[in-house]
Amino acid sequence: MLPQSIRHIQRIATRPIQPVTIQQLLARSASVSEESHIKHARWIREEMPVRLAHRLADSLQLPFVVVCNTRFHEVFRLFLNAFEVITDSPEIEDAKGVDEFAARIRECVMSTGEIVHLLQEGHGELKALLGDLVDLDSFLNQTFFTRIGNRVLAEHFLAVHEARKHGMVDEFAGVVDPRCSPAHTVHGLSKSLGDLCLELYGDKPKVILDGELDAEFSFVPEHLTFMLQEIMKNALRATVEGHMEAASPLPPVTVTVMKGSFDVTIKVSDCGGGIQQEALEN
Q: What is the distance in angstroms between the CA of the first residue and the CA of the last residue of the chain?
């Protein structure tokens, strides 16, 4: 890697990352004017390299043994490639420029699809080699945050751009659903996770859904599904494993939806026994 490339990364990494809210994403919709859509593309072109530069700069500070790991090195290469693809793109002046930029962003999204898998494998290899000699938790957390944030920005822009190209300016487009329904998500997960539990254990707890089932809010459905899936999966597993020897029926897992003035709370309750006392310190 050339010294000028390192200096370029370090210079851009000095810029702060701009936080983005759900409402800001909703405002960048398919129904905006062409001028606003061009500004959206320009903002993506400016902001995504900043986020990538922060992670690349962090990678340059890692111990040599970590950087030499094949998986971590590949993640660095993928981030560097995405950084260069975006920073080397020409200035966006018109609709044609947006089209060309969208093709570059699509390439970046597709090329970074294996990053999570690579980091998992690389971390496992380094853990086996070094044990607790190197703490990578902070680096990995920030890397995952950047990946999630950039994918949300990129996929939202691409979805809006495709909707505009196909004349769907009056329809909802993007990664944020303004009417995301927790109850609908829980219903779907109850079926899929219940079937998985039945296949693995031969039994499954009943999932009871209560509260304000008509509650809706603006959110990324894919993220809500992933979070609820992990929590509900743990609750179902703990319930079955905690009552395998009991003669009585399995207690239910309860999911309660509560809508406040400014937020929505989803509570998952189970009778799995909780964390063992000796494991609390960990």
A: 40
pLDDT tens-digit series, residues 88-146: 999 999 999 999 999 999 999 998 889 999 999 999 999 999 888 888 999 999 999 99
- List of residues 6+ apart from 127 with CB closer than 8 A: none
> How many other C-beta atoms are found inside a 10 Å radius of the C-beta of residue 98?
23
State if pTM tops 0.90. Answer: no
- What tokens were used for 1? 């890697």
Of the candidates 89, 110, 94, 191, the one whose C-alpha atom is nearest the C-alpha of residue 155 is: 110
Element at 120 (helix H, strand E):
helix 115-130
Beta strands in the chain (DSSP E): 177-180, 207-211, 217-219, 253-259, 264-269
Label residue 273 left, alpha or beta by phi (over 0 means left) and psi (-120 to 50 means alpha).
left
Burial label, 90 (beta-carbon count in 10 A; 0-12, 13-18, 19+): exposed
What is the spatial distance between Cα 122 and Cα 68, in angstroms, rounded to a whole number? Answer: 10
Residue whose pair of structure tokens reads 């000028």 in the numeric block: 4
Q: Are 206 and 191 in contact (CB under 8 A)?
A: no
The structure tokens listed for 127 are: 């853990």
Dihedral sign computed on CA atoms, order 52, 57, 61, 64: positive
Q: Is 58 exposed, middle or buried (0-12, 13-18, 19+ CB in 10 A)?
A: middle
Backbone angles phi, psi at 212, to 5 degrees: -90, 85
